[in-house]
């Protein structure tokens, strides 16, 4: 995309348990560079006792409707997906690229930020527990046995984030339905839309090796994936928002 072109709207799809407040620092950095940012709140982050048992399709609808609200108004969109957001975001963006879109705006870039860039039919449960794929959650026996809560979020999500910011981030964590780990995208937009990946090399939740395995599997399908690396945890939007924004801009502002 030329630097003189109109900047795309950046739609941020949050990871499991995460809400817009987690991405506020990143959004501000992108705003200051002239980007409009639409950070989504999805159904599965509801942490009340009535957390729906299955919000997979509802989350996909929320993401897709957010994207099309911009494309139907003639604006291009870049979709930035964090962590589990890559599962639902990959399906939600299907058919909305330049070649497929029926509107004047389209999705011009997918950016996976230490995120699940999976194949059709592949679930989170398909990755066997190992050092590369650690267990990071347990059943929420206290509030909702059909939901998952993160294990040691300081260790897995925020080990390089300033202490006060970490406390706020942990306080803001929402819910995640157990059913999510058994769902898989039926189609994936990275087959249609230019794709990039931000590897976070110090991630303890979705490890560097795990991220590289996901990228290699997509490249094996003949798909080009632009890659950038940050020396960051699972939450680069909190530990290094300026560098993360610069990386996203780098993907979007290339000629």
UniProtKB/TrEMBL annotation:
> Which spans are transmembrane here?
none
The UniProt entry, under Gene3D superfamilies, shows: alpha/beta hydrolase
Q: SUPFAM superfamilies attached here?
A: alpha/beta-Hydrolases
One of its Pfam families is Abhydrolase_6
InterPro entries according to UniProt: AB_hydrolase_1 (IPR000073), AB_hydrolase_fold (IPR029058), Sec-Metab_Biosynth_Hydrolase (IPR052897)
Identify the residues that the record assigns to the AB hydrolase-1 domain, covering every copy. Answer: 10-246
Q: What name does this protein carry?
A: AB hydrolase-1 domain-containing protein
Record organism:
Aureobasidium subglaciale (strain EXF-2481)
Phylogenetic classification of the source organism: Eukaryota, Fungi, Dikarya, Ascomycota, Pezizomycotina
């Amino acid at each position: 995309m030329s630097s003189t072109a109109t900047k795309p709207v950046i739609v941020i799809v949050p990871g499991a348990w995460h809400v817009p407040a987690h991405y506020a620092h990143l959004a501000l950095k992108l705003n200051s560079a002239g980007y409009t940012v639409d950070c989504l709140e999805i159904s599965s982050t509801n942490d009340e006792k009535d957390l729906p048992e299955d919000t997979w399709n509802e989350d996909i609808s929320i993401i897709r409707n957010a994207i099309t609200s911009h494309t139907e108004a003639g604006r291009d969109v870049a979709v930035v997906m964090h962590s589990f957001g890559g599962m639902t975001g990959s399906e939600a963006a299907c058919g909305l690229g330049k070649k497929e879109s029926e509107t004047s705006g389209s999705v011009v870039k997918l950016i996976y930020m230490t995120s699940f860039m999976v194949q059709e039919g592949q679930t989170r449960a398909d990755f066997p527990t190992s050092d590369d794929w650690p267990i990071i959650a347990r059943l929420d026996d206290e509030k909702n046995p059909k939901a998952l809560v993160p294990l040691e979020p300081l260790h897995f999500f925020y080990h390089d984030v300033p202490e006060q910011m970490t406390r706020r981030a942990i306080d803001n964590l929402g819910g995640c339905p157990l059913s999510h780990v058994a769902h898989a995208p039926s189609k994936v937009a990275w087959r249609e839309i230019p794709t990039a990946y931000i590897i976070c090399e110090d991630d303890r939740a979705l490890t560097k090796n795990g991220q590289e395995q996901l990228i290699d599997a997509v490249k094996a399908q003949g798909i080009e994936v632009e890659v950038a690396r940050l020396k960051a945890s699972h939450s680069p939007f909190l530990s290094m928002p300026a560098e993360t924004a610069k990386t996203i801009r780098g993907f979007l502002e290339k000629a």
